[in-house]
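Before relying on records like the one below, remember that each one covers exactly one chain. Contacts with other chains, cofactors or solvent are not represented anywhere in the record.
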Amino acid sequence: MQHAARLKFFRNHLSQLQVAHAIGRVTGVQGGRILVSGLNEVARIGDRAVVTRQNGSTLRAEVVQLTSSDAVLLRDAQV
């Protein structure tokens, strides 16, 4: 029974944790805009994002539009 009590304790504590940062998935690229699913409920216009490519390199972007299914990002200008 002690095992069940510990499991319940951890389950209760884990349910109270908040995500440190949201994670989405790139679903498309259209004319320089990056479409990302999974962020439209948590992202806000002007939020900053980091997109990690398959090769591990990253690019920085900004949320410029929210739709019912996607967050739309614009890549930062390269310096």
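The mean pLDDT is 90.
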